[in-house]
Amino acid sequence: MADCCNGGCASGKPPADARYRRILWIALLVNAGMFVIELASGWHAESAALLADSADFMGDALNYGISLFILGLGTEWRRRSALLKGWSMAAYGLFVLATTAWHVAAGALPAASTMSVIGVLALVANGAVAALLYAFREGDADMRAVWLCTRNDVIGNLAVLAAAALVARTGGNWPDILVAAVMGALSLTAAWAVIRRARRESGAALVRT
């Protein structure tokens, strides 16, 4: 993908790359489908990690939709979109931590086999989307937000698989709880990075004007 500074900023609009638009549509459909699958599986398996990942799929589907809506609009709209995504990532992180606390109180033991099967499916889905988006990772704040969300998904899927293996080995729920908590913390960290970059770009735009 061409960087915003390769001509996109001069007109106030980023290059509305047709390939990037197609990838966003693919990512939206994949994430929406995986949200439904993982939500049902997470409740059935009583897994905090799967439920956390399903919420992430839902948030990402919404974020991809926002990116499609603002694609080709002015840079100010894209900065606002990045800020919205940053705050939504923060809200997701807080939701995950709250869900994790609830599972700690309930003491539910997740089904390791279901965690493993759904974890592999989610990893394949996110890995494919991440591979498609890799070339666009160094764009503006909005594109950076899209990439960070997808990258975090892949990391989260690997963590879910590790948790499933440890649940099966130890017979305890602590690996599931630990992974969910880490996923929540990772989302908060990424949210701060996106918000900070969007604000920096906004400040730079004010200086130019």
Automatic annotation (TrEMBL):
Pfam families: Cation_efflux. Residues 24-199 form the Cation efflux protein transmembrane domain. Gene3D superfamilies: Cation efflux protein transmembrane domain (1.20.1510.10). It is a multi-pass membrane protein. The keyword Transmembrane applies. It is found in: Membrane. InterPro entries: Cation_efflux_TM, Cation_efflux_TMD_sf. Keywords: Membrane, Transmembrane, Transmembrane helix. The chain crosses the membrane at residues 23-41, 61-77, 89-109, 115-134, 154-171, 177-195. The keyword Transmembrane helix applies. This is Cation transporter. It comes from Duganella aceris. The lineage of its organism: Bacteria, Pseudomonadati, Pseudomonadota, Betaproteobacteria, Burkholderiales.
